Amino acid sequence: MSSFPAHRPRRLRSTPAMRRLVTEHSLHARQLVLPVFVTERDAPQPIATMPGVIQHTLESLPDVVNEAAGAGLGGVMLFGVPAVRDALGTGATDPDGILNRAIRVAKDAAAGRLTVQADLCLDEFTDHGHCGVLDADGGVDNDATLERYVAMALAQAAAGADILGLSGMMDGQVAACREALEDAGFVDVVILAYSAKYASAFYGPFRDAVESTLSGDRKAYQLDPANAREGALEAQRDIDEGADIIMVKPAGPYLDVLADVAASASIPVWAYQVSGEYAMIEMAAAAGAIDRDRAILESLIGIRRAGADAILTYWAIEVAGWLREGRA
Ligand code: PBG
Q1: How far apart are CA 130 and CA 121, in angstroms?
Q2: Domain locations in the chain as residue ranges
Q3: Which of 10, 109, 308, 312 satisfies CB 3.0 to 4.6 Å to 62 for a cystine?
Q4: How many CB atoms lie within 10 A of CB 293?
Q5: What mean pLDDT is reported for the chain?
Q6: Which of 3.40.50.1950, 3.40.50.2300, 3.30.870.10, 3.20.20.70 is the CATH number of 26-325?
Q7: Catalytic choice (29, 249, 251, 272)
Q8: Pfam families from the entry (predicted)?
Q9: Position 76 confidence tier, pLDDT thresholds 50, 70, 90
Q10: Cβ(167) to ligand 1 under 6 A?
């Protein structure tokens, strides 16, 4: 009798019930976070390069928060799209600035059903579009920017944000914000550190989404896509500085970094499936090149498989619906 093949791994793939039984990884609505853009204009606006995503207004924000809560999501991540910008990003620290107002509105609508998270970075608020304030030579001044981030952290905490998403990649930003929050008595505000944030082309559509006017690039503060060790080091430093959660961003092109960080981190590790990852699948599917829904699920399970505990994704509500229907 032939002993070939010695192994038949296809046995475990033979029926849907068998495959379901041996599935290693899964998606859960509670581990998905929806990024939400909030504009100061009168009406919600479509975002040309992100088909299906819109800028909300303060009036439409409660609806999407309700929808997100109803879908069982873990949270919403808010981005402000201010009408007026200046060199210091004054709108970011103004309690009546669009993002701080949005935090209050979202917090109210959430009523404790999901977390309210806020992007803590200056690029949406500066007229030059950089993530910090500029020095005399036009470079981003790290330490002067930290002062702005600290003020922003206090404004967002005062507005009621549960989680602050520190996405600016300034050195020492986690420690500076943590100390200020402690001193002000905001001891329960969670710091989500975008530790390994790469200088990525995949943020392209986001510029549209927040109407950013950046000329130049962010290579002097975001990570070089060619570097993996540096991403792991940034994550460890942020943990040492007091981060509660760390993040790798973008997700898809950096699954190796994500897996590496997730394997050694002692705190939750998240990943951000960014605007360009969204646009790639939407546009390829619209052109008939790929099956949209399957591609979305495959991209997300890949991020989970690499080690992400939670994922920021523009498809969060839709995917949560599929999960509820048992389609995913
Ligand atoms: C910084 C920030 C960016 C994104 C999230 N936070 C832009 C950047 O750093 O250039 C990108 C998110 C996306 O592309 O979906 N405020």
Answers
A1: 9
A2: 26-325
A3: 109
A4: 16
A5: 97
A6: 3.20.20.70
A7: 249
A8: ALAD (PF00490)
A9: very high
A10: yes
Task: Tell me how far the alpha carbon of residue 322 lies from the centroid of ligand 1, in angstroms.
Answer: 27
Tokens standing for residue 44: 């919600």
Six-digit token pair at 112? 């404790």
Which pLDDT tens digit goes with each residue over 130-187?
Answer: 999 999 999 999 999 999 999 999 999 999 999 999 999 999 999 999 999 999 999 9
Amino acid at 141: D
Cβ of 277 closer than 6 Å to ligand 1, yes or no, is no
Task: For a ligand 1 pocket test, name from 203, 221, 223, 270 the mutation site with the most ligand atoms within 8 angstroms of its C-beta.
Answer: 203
Task: Give the 3-state secondary structure percentages of the chain, helix then strand then coil, rounded to 5.
Answer: 45, 15, 40
Ligand 1, from 76, 78, 119, 167: best to mutate by most atoms within 8 Å of Cβ? 167
Q: How far apart are CA 119 and CA 152, in angstroms?
A: 10
Check if 197 is active-site: yes
